[in-house]
# Entry
Amino acid sequence: MKKSLIDIKNVSFQYDYTQVLKNISFRVEEGDFLALLGPNGSGKSTLLKIILGLLKPMSGEIKLFGVPSSTFKHREWIGYVSQKSNAFNSGFPATVQEVVKSGLSKKLGLFKRPGRDAKEKVLEALKAVGMEAFINRNIGELSGGQQQRVFIARALVSEPRLLILDEPTVGIDHENVQSFYDMLAKLNREQGITMILVTHDVDTVSNRISHVACLNQTIHFHGYKNEFDTISHDALDAWYGHSVRKIH
Amino acid sequence: MIEAIFNYEFLQNAFFSGLLIGILAPLLGVFIVVRRLSLIADALSHVTLAGIAGSLYISQSVTAFAMLNPIYLGILASVSGSILIERLRRLYKHYEELAIPIIMSGGIGISAIFISLASGFSTDLMSYLFGSVSAVSRQDLWVVVGIAAVVIIFLFIFFKELFVLSFDEEYAKASGLPARWIHLLFMIVTALVIAASMRIVGILLVSSLMTLPVAAAMRLAKGFKQTIIYAIVFGETAVLIGLVSAFYLDLAPGGTIVVTSILILLLVILVKKIVFKMATKREEVAQ
# Structure
């Protein structure tokens, strides 16, 4: 059996009086490329925040890499790329190199500074996302798609085994979205990085992912991509309350 | 002035304190500006004033404390203010900026009470409000040296964490950084620098030495480290020119330093505009 990187059992969460997640259980195994689908307000971002340890669930159990989340020490194994729109102040005076290097921070821990090999690692991570030519540019000068690639490089530089991406293509134009997903698929294939991708965009990712999970307060479906393809439109509509397009 | 520095201790005190503050204020200022906390620096300086005014009043009314250096109560007030601001910011999660007027008006209010209670420390008080070349004691200088050491050690340890936190707070938390603690330490260190700077630039103008050189640096620099270096160069230039002119023209150094900073900022904006225009013209010609 493949190693389980995320193991969630009966997790529930509510903000004040609104139930956001109800009895969620699912597993993500090493090497998976999982698309987490769900309409706005379905609890996707909340679920990610729980996995990342930013929120504590009201009930249930979370294991990361086989260890209970509360005692999990290797946060650097999990890379996180958030939605571009709320991620950072675009006027921030930092070069691409400085931004990517900051991804090493957690791995190094306190008191240690990035050493000589840091620049190598930064360059390698930028090459993996095709952004090495921009190393000395200010982050604010880049386009949305380019910035997202830089943020992936920032996640890659600490050599994560799992990458969590929260709607990373919001605000990126269509052509660049394709090559962005190609890059993710390549990282998954060649470097064996497990991917969890939150998206609205089922059509575009559909031929690159291995698994699909449908979330709307609870998990309605979780399984292989080809099983997902056999689900009827009516079932999807019922889960989501509106139509979700999918391509077979 | 160089000759005078060798002869007069008070000038040495002012000069060396100024040199240190010219480094510290813009150095921390870069973090303050990019984290959009400029107004917090202002609030803290007004809380510092409450400590100073309180100390001056105690010295005046209790003979045992007649020699008490106001800088200590100033530091205490400023650090307590920084902790209070953080508490208030957590209490009013959706109105974080409310903490600033609360603390700021509190600081001014308490200062006003002490100032009106005491009568006759107006010269002293003026030197704290707008800085002074002649009032910096050797003890003040040592306090500034001590604070400089704390700031340098703090930044040496936490530089990369502060960068991550400033650039993208959510990411910092997601990667397991103890964001709250680092932020609190940062606020305390900021409070220390504000208390250290007030002797030279004055309480009312401390925040400008933290922001104006950074504003100029951000127009020119590429990247974060370069922004820090430029900010320190501009800050140091402003302090030196400001101190020398304050000494010769018998003015409050706070005023001369801040006006110099503004002139530097204007110059940078102007030069950048001209260079940009020339570059676009060259491009047009090339096409």
Remarks:
- The mean pLDDT of chain B is 90.
- Chain B has one domain: 6-210.
- The two ends of chain B are 54 Å apart (CA to CA).
